[in-house]
Design a protein that fits this description.
The complex is a heterodimer of chains A (118) and B (114). Chain A is built from no helices and 12 strands. The N and C termini of chain A lie far apart (41 Å). With 118 residues, chain A is mainly beta. With 114 residues, chain B is an all-beta fold. Helix content of chain B is 0%, strand content 49%. Chain B contains no helices and 11 strands. Chain B is globular and about 40 Å long. Classes of the chains: A mainly beta (118), B mainly beta (114). At the A-B interface, strand 5 and strand 11 of A face strand 4, strand 5, strand 9 and strand 10 of B.
């Protein structure tokens, strides 16, 4: 069965520090998608990135970067030079494609509450 | 472009009452989902639908019902509300294709059962 583990329940750093949010997943499929979502204090879920299982290239978008390693089943998220506006709950999610065609939704981790102190 | 719209945003129910959470999307997505979010527990799938007329149970379906008569609408029905159904409910839609497969979420409905 698919599973996503975000072992860090809460992280608190001072503004401008770099911070990495860990995500470890379990799946028996060889074809799957991984996602990161941000949930700011206002409560909505904001899509950040998607990665399919055949694309292990790391990605950088401004201060955000993602490291996907199939060998360790990890999809970690790093924020460089953090800002107070980055404070939010961040969710990692997995969607299996072979099992059920992916129609049965995303499996989410429990989330990491990131607090950026000024 | 509205995306996924949920109503109401907040609701207080008494134990035993019923209600319907509305969800509509204007992206012509085939796949729609209902999740609930409890503090510290992430999101859990309640029901999903792969198209009009087709629904299926997710991880936590007990106490809920859904219907999908159109591509756009996917209401969630709570019968005989219980305190355990106090939660934040999210509706989402999704389409598979070359441009991606992420789910788009509504703003959420915060439900309290007292």
């Amino acid at each position: 069965a698919q599973k996503v583990t975000q072992a860090q329940t809460e992280i608190s750093v001072v503004e401008k520090e770099d911070v990495t949010l860990d995500c470890v997943y379990e799946t028996r499929d060889t074809t799957y998608y991984l996602f990161w979502y941000k949930q700011p204090p206002s409560g909505e879920l904001v899509f950040l990135i998607r990665r399919n299982s055949f694309d292990e290239q790391n990605e950088i978008s401004g201060r955000y970067s993602w490291n996907f390693q199939k060998s360790t089943s990890s999809f970690n998220f790093t924020i460089t030079a953090s800002q107070v506006v980055d404070s939010a709950v961040y969710f990692c999610a997995l969607s299996e494609i072979e099992s059920g065609g992916g129609a049965d939704g995303l499996t989410f981790g429990k989330g990491t509450h990131l607090i950026i102190q000024p | 472009n509205a995306g996924v719209t949920q109503t109401p945003k907040f609701r207080i129910l008494k134990i035993g009452q019923s209600m319907t959470l509305q969800c509509t999307q204007d992206m012509n997505h085939n796949y729609m989902y209902w999740y609930r979010q409890d503090p510290g527990m992430g999101l859990k799938l309640i029901y999903y639908s792969v198209g009009a007329g087709i629904t299926d149970k997710g991880e936590v379906p007990n106490g809920y019902n859904v219907s999908r008569s159109t591509t756009e609408d996917f209401p969630l029905r709570l019968e005989l509300a219980a305190p355990s159904q106090t939660s934040v409910y999210f509706c989402a839609s999704r389409q598979f294709g070359a441009l991606g497969t992420e789910a788009f979420f509504g703003q959420g409905t915060r439900l309290t059962v007292v």
